[in-house]
Amino acid sequence: MRTKSLLFGLILAFAVPFALADEGMWLYNAFPKDRVKAQYGFLPTQVWLDHLRLSSVRFNSGGSGSFVSADGLTFTNHHVGADCIQKLGKAGTDYMKTGFYAKTQADEAKCPDLELNVLVGIDDVTAKVKAAVTASMSTAERGQAERAAMSAIEKDCTVSTSLRCDVVTLYSGEVYNLYQYKKYTDVRLVFSPEFEIAFFGGDPDNFTYPRYDLDITFFRIYENDKPVHLEHYLQWSKGGVKDGELIFVSGNPGNTERLKTVAQVQFLKDLDYPSRLASYKRRIDLLKRFSAESPENARIAQEDIFGLENSQKAITGYLGGVSDLAAMSQKNLAEREQEKQYLGKNPGAPNPWEEIASAVKVESEIYNQLTYVERARGFYSGLAVVARNLVRAAAEKSKPNGERLREYRDSALRSLEQRLFSTAPIYKNLETVTLAGSFTQMQEALGADDPAVKMVLNGKSPEGAAKELLSGTKLEDVAVRKQLYEGGQPAIEASTDPLIVLMRNLDPLARAVRKRFDDEVDAVERRDGALIAQARFANSGFNQPPDATFTLRLTYGPVKGYMENGKKIPYFTTLGGAYEHAAEHGGKPPYQLPQSWIKAKSKLNLATPFNYVSTVDIIGGNSGSPTVNKAGEVVGIIFDGNIQSLANNFFYDDVQQRAVHVDSRGIIEALRKIYGAEALANELTGAAGSAGEKAAKVKAAAKP
Asked: What is the pLDDT of residues 582-597, one digit of tens each?
């Protein structure tokens, strides 16, 4: 639903190079403290910011979270933790359906391949990366030199600190920051509710509001088989939030396109988004047919279906955001004005907007080969991805670090090895169906005569090829994977495993299209995007955050309802509202409350706030982000946005755009009175030793 005010906000956001209202997925090392002070009368101190940063975590499963006790207790969404929850299940044991609660630490269940990252340091390494480039270099050579410099910086950092070190590209390559992470890989499940209440309302209610979801999960991090004792964690608020209160959200937004050129946005609108949506639909339909065959099939496919449906709805919203002709016209006018000013100041210089437009044409030409072959849309199978990584790792590890593909650089290998050697269950019946489906899509997209398609199918049908490959592979055995990985190139060359053979034969084709992208698209967009960023912020400085990169950002805004279709939408819902919402829909799926909720209704304070909305600036990847008040206390957790917020990918507007949170008060009420999780609730609400004292000091330092 778009209003005139929202459209006007979109036009302004496209047209002017400064942030509006509370817009901003801000870098921690460039947070606008003075602006917050001027607008809200609260000055976040450096101590306050550091504490919040060190209490925030990133999940490699694609979301955010936070530490909420001194003993390593970690808080995120159910849909972020679902990857682990699903993998811990087995036939006859479905934690997605029943929920999970470890009453003691001995009962906590270890996730097979979950990695959590805590951002412990940020360094500006722009000068080091740019120093690798010389004026005589071609665009492709420039891109390779930058990638090599980034890999060298990361390796030096990892060797000297033993941390995970990533060079993050900001403002299209105008700025480079080195992010240093403390990594935790022993992560154990403590509590998760039933899927029915974590995703109450299902896909129909997804990206809507009002909502009634307990979308939460708790994990605990361990080192040396013992819970980690933390200095920095977030204390739980006793009072929750009130209307108009300033709150902050610390999380890892995945990606945004706000600073992209018209040509880059048009590529998304005309090609990328429609292609993704078509693929999502086919995969969802395929998985639903598979699920209908048996309860066990339904169990093992549930998480894939949920993820695909969520992506489908999100991309549909993004597509709507760039299909507004008036808004795109205004963005084009603003860009032409910027272009005119740039060329006036740089007569005779190449036009960076035209250079990027040419790169986008190349990307469009190679899109299907890049997407299906190199980026593996044609290989919808965990085992196929394992085979690709084993083949690539063997080849890349034999090269100097700076010459490798970025995902195989020295600093990334430990995380790669964790994924490769995961003990998560593999379901070949599911993989056979999904791999066959992706082979069919690849054949249709590339044509039956495409060399990659011929190599994959080898004269067989997609179904026949998938069945032969997966029935013959032994890669589900972790010991086999380790043997191939440790054996390097000789082991890969000698292997007769059908998936290894296929990926080994396909690799030259995949690398060729990858090289075209790296040299003719990425390098150009990095070079010319940096020039545009220089021009955009030449006078003002970087007064607008860079596009999101799935790295830690901090955003803020008030708790606030909104108007829709002439109706006032209150800022919060209640636990009682969940029962009413279920009754309105006859209590049928996806509006069926779990039996635990039905039985506990009489014990609950039904007026307890459950979900609420705010104007904070979020996007995918922020799921699980802690919501804190000015005292740095947890008052909730991000789990969704309303449908209007999907346009956040391209612009921010606070008229109707809202982030949706689970309220801290509703969480405690549910833990105590529905789930009997008294020990967990007490751990959340109680102080603990030195960590509690540290939090008290931070709380005092946060006062304006």
From this structure: 999 999 999 999 999 9
